[in-house]
Amino acid sequence: MKLLITGGAGFIGSNFIHYWLKKHAGDQIINLDSLTYAGHLESLKDVSHRHHYTFVKGDINNSELVDSLMSQVDIVVHFAAETHVDRSITDPMIFTRTNVIGTQTLLEAAKKYGTRFHHISTDEVFGALKLESKNKFNTKTRYQPNSPYSASKAASDHLVMSYHTTFGVPVTITNCSNNFGPYQDTEKFIPRTITNLLEGKNILIYGDGKYVRDWMHVEDHCRAIELVLLKGKVGASYTVGGMNKDVSNLEVSKKILKIMKLPESRIDYIKDRPGHDRRYAVSWKKINKELGWEPKEKFSKRLKQTIDWYRANEWWWKDMKVKSEDFYKTK
Ligand SMILES: NC(=O)c1ccc[n+]([C@@H]2O[C@H](COP(=O)([O-])OP(=O)(O)OC[C@H]3O[C@@H](n4cnc5c(N)ncnc54)[C@H](O)[C@@H]3O)[C@@H](O)[C@H]2O)c1
After folding, report:
1. Ligand 1 in contact with 217 (CB < 6 A)?
2. pLDDT tens digits for 52-77?
3. Distance from the CA of 263 to the center of ligand 1, in angstroms?
4. Candidates 5, 11, 121: which one to mutate for ligand 1, based on the most atoms within 8 Å of Cβ?
5. Which tens digits make up the pLDDT trace of 168-187?
6. Domains of the chain, start order
């Protein structure tokens, strides 16, 4: 098979390329990425020489380029997006351009060639659950996005489904909870926390820190995408989450401090993010029942591995960390 991966230089995209080439060594991958501040080719250093892998620097809004790449592939796995909620508050327009118009540009080309299209989306399209709630998001949950990021992802999900219903494009969607693991930009919560500590700085916690997320390791996510690509029902969406160990940002910080043998006095509380969603929790019953998927990666074990990874790979994050600190300073 020949796959077009969009946003393959980002966190989940680069993990997915590693995963796919390991499991499907005969397949060809084209990685289309415009290398925004969030795209890091260094994440693909160890696969870049392989003749099964091609990198194309380009924008998913470039319809001519997208058309020419689409004509060459069997499947698209669409990761490319603006992804940082904080940036969607300071600069929302780029989120619509990339996440909505960019997705539609890809869909137009997929319509022309009848290409199988898998869209990577987020549980944030469903809004927030109450802190004390025992509910979980599932594929029947009403869309109720709260940030410009989640609103743009919600719009893209609707476009993807509309291209299936109206034009018969063979699509699937996964709405996934918060991922963590190697190669995640230091602007995001877990890597920012770890690298702050590695640099001798304190951890920064928004508000009271009681923001609960359903963490899942990126490898579990890659396995879910693989299953949906190979066996998922065309026209379906699947919600994907972690091992039901949803923990607050404050608890995650304390776990990281404990693993790194540092005191809790290293936590600083800062002004809350506007419109901050209290709690996300995701049901993975449908993907389990239909495709047999379940999360396998234990949170604490993988968190320790992630800390070890950042400790051992300072070369990968040191420069980007300066940029993400600049962003937070100007906020
Ligand atoms: N990270 C998470 O926890 C999470 C959870 C659920 C869903 N998602 C979704 O998964 C996907 C990947 O997320 P991530 O965390 O890996 O993102 P990321 O920010 O790490 O990477 C995004 C990539 O997209 C590229 N890109 C951005 N705009 C582009 C454009 N116009 N044309 C081509 N490439 C462009 C960037 O250069 C970067 O390489 C996104 O669609 C996101 O909404 C992420």
Report:
1. no
2. 999 999 999 999 999 999 999 999 99
3. 33
4. 11
5. 999 999 999 999 999 999 99
6. 2-180+216-240 (3.40.50.720), 189-212+244-280+298-323 (3.90.25.10)
